[in-house]
Amino acid sequence: MENNFFGEETAIILGLGELRVGMCPMGTIGLGSCIALILHDQRRSLAGLAHIMLPESRGSTDRPGKFADTAMSALLEEMGKAGSIKSSIAAIVVGGASMFEFSANSLNIGERNAAAVKELLQEQGIRIEHEETGGKVGRSVYYWPEGKGRLIIKRADGTCDAL
Question: Which residues are known to be catalytic?
Answer without folding.
Answer: 34
